[in-house]
Design brief:
128 residues; mainly alpha; 434 Repressor (Amino-terminal Domain); 8 helices; 69% helix; 0% strand
């Protein structure tokens, strides 16, 4: 069975992060803290992102392609944000899903190198 990164999974990760998120915890993880310039803004944005995801139906979280303009407006009004923020969240999750799929098609050593930020091989052609 092939798994895909759905918005439900992202939502559960955000809930876990909201329980653990504090500037002190992020400072104890130097590798992660180096990539997050504004920790307070990240921590403050978690409830907003959860609000957007909670305003979606299960079907929309399972298949974001269902989100047409009227559904995006409904989610935005239900979560108190602009439609652009909803689209940006969905686009960001789509980017993460594609990256995770690419990582599953590559060998374990390439994944380790990429996670460490090294570029040992030329880029692979995009998956279709």
């Amino acid at each position: 069975m092939r798994r895909s990164f759905a918005l439900d999974e992202f939502r559960s990760h955000l809930r876990s992060m909201s329980r653990l998120a504090s500037a002190e915890v992020l400072d104890r993880l130097p590798e992660l803290a180096r990539h997050i310039p504004d920790k307070e803004a990240l921590i403050a944005s978690i409830p907003r992102l959860l609000g957007i995801l909670d305003a979606m139906t299960r079907a929309e979280r399972a298949d974001p392609s269902l989100l047409n303009d009227s559904r995006v407006r409904r989610v935005a009004s239900g979560s108190g944000v602009s439609p652009e923020e909803v689209r940006r969240l969905v686009a960001g999750c789509e980017y993460v899903r594609r990256e995770m799929e690419c990582m599953t098609h590559e060998g374990p050593w390439r994944r380790i190198w990429l996670l460490l930020g090294w570029k040992p091989f030329p880029p692979l052609p995009p998956h279709s």
